[in-house]
Design a protein that fits this description.
Layout (H helix, E strand, L loop, with lengths): L1 H6 L9 H10 L2 H9 L13 H5 L13 E6 L5 E9 L5 E10 L4 H12 L3 E5 L8 H6 L3 E5 L1 H16 L3 E3 L3 H9 L1 E4 L6 E4 L8 H13 L1
Parallel strand pairs: 1-4, 3-6, 4-5
Antiparallel strand pairs: 1-2, 2-3, 7-8
Helix pairs in contact: 7-9
């Protein structure tokens, strides 16, 4: 906590200790160091996408249009999970948002059920080869339609996300956990060609937020 105070002069006045403690509980260590303590990646650790391009797509006023597509992702050790959403706005740009990012998996299906009840979003996309796939039976029992991506679909989703960001075809709300995931994410080659996907093994932080919005965008398209 002494280091928290050194890095955040407003702690105790404009920023509450309980807020930082909640962030520490929700984020993995690397993400917390970057987002709250000002620890930055070196040039040698540059991510896949230009963060200046990504940051320029932040739009705090962005709102989803009709036809929400949800996507979930769970880290291989099941320590973190995320729910992302994508929806095409009325102007044709796709809205991306992290609905939730928490430790563990027990909260996922109840949270998805509530989202379905409130917003009518009944489609959930997940990677068939990810740890999230084990939750499919519970999701179906909750009345959700599950779409599982193949390895080829996953490669298409990652390429689609990359092109959409580079082409300015998406907007996001500037979520700290999503920003951190994108900064730390690395890619892995698939098969023998040029196709690639986000790498869970070599990325330095929790990338479930990034994978979830990547899959949600694929679901919209």
């Amino acid at each position: 906590e002494a280091v928290w105070r050194q890095a955040n002069p407003a702690l105790g006045s404009r920023l509450q200790l309980s807020t930082v403690a909640a962030e520490r509980a929700a984020m993995d260590e690397v993400t917390f160091r970057r987002e709250r303590l000002g620890s930055w990646a070196t040039a040698a650790q540059a991510g896949v996408l230009d963060m200046d391009v990504w940051n320029n797509l932040a739009d705090q006023a962005s709102e989803p249009g009709p036809g929400l597509v949800l996507a979930v992702d769970v880290s291989p050790d099941r320590s973190m999970a995320s729910i992302g959403v994508a929806s095409e706005r009325r102007d044709g740009v796709v809205h991306l948002e992290i609905i939730d990012n928490r430790a563990g998996t027990g909260w996922l299906v109840p949270r998805l059920r509530k989202i379905r009840e409130r917003h009518g979003a009944a489609v959930v996309v997940m990677d068939a080869l990810s740890a999230a796939a084990s939750l499919e039976p519970d999701m179906r029992r909750a009345g959700l339609r599950v779409i599982k991506t193949s390895l080829s679909d996953l490669a298409d989703a990652c390429g689609l996300f990359f092109d959409a960001v580079q082409g300015g075809a998406v907007r996001h709300l500037g979520s700290p956990v999503l920003d951190a995931a994108l900064r730390s994410a690395r890619r892995r080659k698939l098969r023998s060609g040029e196709a690639w996907a986000w790498s869970r093994a070599t990325s330095e932080a929790d990338i479930t937020p990034l994978v979830s919005v990547t899959l949600a965008l694929w679901g919209v398209k």
